[in-house]
Amino acid sequence: MSTSSHAVRFARVREAAPFALPLLVFLLVLYGMLAWTVYTSLSDWQGTAPNYTFAGLKWYRFMVGLDRFWVDLDNNLRWLVLGVVPTTVLALCVAYLLEIGAVRGIEAYLRTLVLYPAAMSFVVTGTIWSWMYQADRGVLNTLLRAAGLERLTSGYTTDPATATYWLILIFVWQYLGLAVLILQASFRSVELQEMVESATLDGASRLRILIAVLIPNIRGGILVVVSLLLISALKVFDIVYVVTFGGPGYATDVLALFQFIATYQQHLVALGSGLAVVIFALAFIIIIPYTIYALQRWFE
Amino acid sequence: MSNGATKAPVSQIVVGVIIAALVAGVAGYWAGTQRGGGMAKAEERKLEIFHWWTAGGEREAADAMFKALKAKYPDIQLVENPVAGGGGVSHRVVLQARLSAGIPPDTWQTLGGAELKSYVDGGYLEPLDSLYTELKYTDAIPKPLANAVTIGGHPYVVPLNMHIQNILYYDKKLFDELGLRPPTTFDQLLAAAKAIKAARPKMSPLALGSKEKWEAAFVLDSLLLEVGGAEHYVKLYKGEVDVAADPAFKTALERLNTLRPYIYASHPQLTWDESCGLVVSHDSAMVIMGTWAIGYFKSRGWTPGTDFGAVTFPQQPERVLLFHPDTYGLAKGAPHAKATMDWLKVVASADLQVPTDVTQGGLFARLDIDPGQFPDPIRQELQTYVRGNPGKLILDQHGSIAPFSFTQAYWDVAAGFTAKPDVAGTVKAVSELFTTYKVQEGAAWYQWP
């Protein structure tokens, strides 16, 4: 009896092996690289030749002594808050408007229009927006001047104090469509539709339905959107690289861009790895609530 | 049973693939260790080269280089690994990966100075003493140029050109119209800027594009050179000046701040070529840029000497040219060392330097080439000056004297200052950068004069 169950188990393992193997290789590569990066960040690698001499926290101490690091961290937090909250709220509103047919007739067009930016790469959007943001000949200021609204014109990304916000706006624009799509999909469960129907019969207003019925019941969808946006905002690199290159000075710099500069321009590889570890740690902190939620659902 | 029979091959295939991959890996490693391991086999006539001249204008210069090689050694098969993108940023990423992995190309483009030193420190380059002796190359090029490619007493690369950083380009027609003389000192620059602003209120007299940061450092450098002089300039970037207590650095920043109202305001949004474009479109009248701008102006249909002029800036207290070279060396463990040495001989020759430098925009590294080979009066004059005064060349901060880790951070601070001037804060920040990046230690190799 027992031998035959062993045989069955063995057959199962053999059956699964070919499929588990790619996963294993993937995990090995992924976590192997991660461990390697952590180790490099603790080494003394500066210059072009690898140097894995253990240096402890030397380069982390160097990192926290740099003004640029704190500017980056500050900017990354701005990205996390302003890239995620407005996008989610706006996406909820747009998705609901589309859902209740407030814009019947042009809904299909509107949906395409909103989703379109998500199909473009950040390099393309970044280039287009950097043209629009040009203070003296960009389309935004040109339109404002033509409309006689001279005092609304702005230097956009040329002012170190506000440049980051203009970059975040590009991110919001680009991710809105995707967020709308996910939220609209989560409206569509049969249960939820029935609840909305009965609430409507009870005479609830549309705003009340959104707040009291829809939002509490699409927590899963919102969580997906928020986590997606958080991770994307945290690892932002392309928009900054293309539009401002971290400038003016390093006013719009973010951790991911500094990691690139430190590693390949400054040849401070240990520092660059340390910055990568910081980004990973932040991502880890952000993803924990999502993991807990997912696990709770799993065991329910 | 039939089930087992159909499944077995799958796992067998997987195992087989893994074994094959392992064998291939070991074999590849073995082949790698055997390479250059003193085998008497005749070397292939091949040259693997890494360079970043891929953008318009520079691509033509690269072609001119390889044409010169083909003319001399038609049997050498060229393998180019240029990385698109230009400017050398992505180039350095790929090169770094190849070098750390122990599979270097035979030769690659590098600036002299600090960048070269990083490769020498990494042990990636062979010293070229015998080649220099054979070609008498040290005597053929200016001494400051030879110093910029010599680390610890050994020359490591062969320079093929010199880019000059401190040049002020100006709209010649406008200057003639307004009766202005091209400025060669700060006072003259300020006066010219004021005169242009008065005559053309819509213009920003001095163009600037600080998106890539180094452009702002160019302007600061020129001002600094006038305030402190040549010796101070070298000492500063060797980390031998206490910036926090240095009146010259502070004055240079203050002068830059004085110029700011006359500088193109949206400069953080522009790259260097776009800033030169402001002069072409008559939005600006002057720009401080390296010799490569000549090629840009020409590509926009501007004729040197007619549409635009150029002067060394500053020319007080003396006329110093800040330079950096493009160079090639021999990789340690190069698969085709002999072909590479042939290539380096071509790089050192006038046959390569004349067509390449005329196209790409720099000056000739060799002093014995007739300045009349340049089609434009600007470089004819510059090359003649270099011939007569080779000692007036100083390796610039772009190339650079100080280690690259410092230089990058320094550019950011300089660019930050042009956007938001804070003299005291910038003095403090720069002073800290010199300590943080241990400049004095890292720049000790540089000897001037």
Automatic annotation (TrEMBL), chain A:
Subcellular location per UniProt equals:
Cell membrane
Tell me which stretches of the chain form a coiled coil: none
Q: Is Thylakoid found in the keyword set?
A: no
Q: Name one GO biological process term.
A: transmembrane transport
What domain of life? Bacteria
Its membrane topology is listed as: Multi-pass membrane protein
Q: Which InterPro entries match?
A: ABC_transporter_permease (IPR051393), MetI-like (IPR000515), MetI-like_sf (IPR035906)
Task: State what protein this is by name.
Answer: Sugar ABC transporter permease
Query: Which lineage do the record's taxonomy fields give for this organism?
Result: Bacteria, Bacillati, Candidatus Sysuimicrobiota, Candidatus Sysuimicrobiia, Candidatus Sysuimicrobiales
Automatic annotation (TrEMBL), chain B:
Keyword Heme found = no
Q: Where in the cell is it found?
A: Cell envelope
| Cited InterPro entries | Bact_solute-bd_prot1 (IPR050490), SBP (IPR006059)
Keywords, ordered alphabetically: Membrane, Signal, Transmembrane, Transmembrane helix, Transport
Q: Which Pfam families match?
A: SBP_bac_1
Note the SUPFAM superfamilies from the entry: Periplasmic binding protein-like II
Q: Which residues cross the membrane?
A: 12-31
The main location class comes to other
N-terminal signal peptide: none
Per the record, its GO cellular-component terms are: cell envelope
| Keyword Nucleus on entry | no
Q: What does this protein do?
A: Part of a binding-protein-dependent transport system for a sugar.
UniProt record similarity statement = Belongs to the bacterial solute-binding protein 1 family.
Q: Which PANTHER family match?
A: ARABINOSE-BINDING PROTEIN-RELATED (PTHR43649), BINDING PROTEIN COMPONENT OF ABC SUGAR TRANSPORTER-RELATED (PTHR43649:SF28)
How is this protein named in the record?
Probable sugar-binding periplasmic protein
Source organism per entry reads Candidatus Segetimicrobium genomatis
